[in-house]
Design brief:
8 strands; about 15% strand; binds phosphoenolpyruvate; about 250 residues; alpha/beta; eight-stranded parallel β-barrel; TIM Barrel
């Protein structure tokens, strides 16, 4: 059991429409109850729903984030893109950057670094995703990969107070497979050790659900969870938070 301040980030990926707003009444009620304990909830819906979520959450403490942003801080001829300033303008406080589903489409560490710097300039808090693939894990390259992602991704980012790191092993996302507790503890410690002064808070993401949260919550160096599939079901998401604190 934990009694620490923990983050629970709902990554809705490319799911949801206006009728999803009705499902949020339960989470709003929960966020105002004692059961939330020291949990901090953040929803990252698709771009199309950020504004509506932001209005819906206006009288509660639930944060809102985007799932990505364009690397340019200025407006420009980038069809289909949204930048950090635009996210901020419609009510976002956070943005996920470096998610493996976007790295797979060609986002590299340098591009991610640019996005992070511009998101910070736009006064967003950044949830910076890192993680190794299964092949890299099998070749025992996890620490090497994570070190490079952190080094390049945060290059010349001096003030890290608005950075959160989400460790998301690619082989764990959407697969139902989570790392062994002792391996996860070690990797989270390794990530924290990469920061000379104060480490950013480090979250775990990858197949978190109401069944495995009982084991995950015992790993005491984890500062929160980035939750994909299970977060789209409000009951499961609430269960995860409740179980973390019982
Ligand atoms: C994610 O997409 O960030 C994620 C953790 O997904 P899932 O929980 O579905 O594995």
């Amino acid at each position: 059991m934990t009694n620490k301040y923990m983050y629970f980030i709902a990554n809705w990926k490319m799911y949801g429409n206006l009728s999803s707003l009705n499902t949020l009444n339960k989470i709003i009620k929960f966020s105002k109850s004692k059961e939330i304990n020291k949990g901090r909830l953040i929803y990252c819906p698709p771009y199309t729903l950020i504004s509506a979520f932001s209005k819906k959450f206006k009288n509660c403490q639930i944060g809102i984030g985007g799932q990505n942003c364009h690397e340019s801080i200025s407006y420009g001829p980038y069809t289909g893109s949204v930048n950090a300033k635009m996210l901020k303008n419609i009510g976002a406080h956070f943005v996920i950057i470096g998610h493996s589903e976007n790295r797979e489409k060609g986002e590299n560490d340098k591009l991610i670094n640019l996005k992070i710097k511009n998101a910070l300039l736009a006064k967003l808090k950044v949830i910076f995703c890192i993680g190794e693939t299964l092949t890299q894990k099998k070749k025992k390259k996890t620490e090497f990969v994570l070190s490079k992602q952190i080094k390049v991704g945060l290059n010349s980012v001096k003030n890290k107070s608005n950075i959160f790191i989400a460790y998301e092993p690619v082989w764990s996302i959407g697969t139902g497979v989570v790392p062994k507790s002792k391996d996860l503890f070690k990797t989270i410690n390794f990530i924290k050790s990469k920061f000379k002064d104060k480490s950013p808070k480090v979250f775990y993401g990858g197949s978190v659900n109401p069944q495995n949260i009982n084991d995950l919550k015992e790993i005491n160096n984890i500062d929160g969870f980035l939750i994909g599939g299970a977060s789209q079901n409000t009951k499961k998401f609430i269960d995860i938070v409740k179980k973390t604190y019982t």
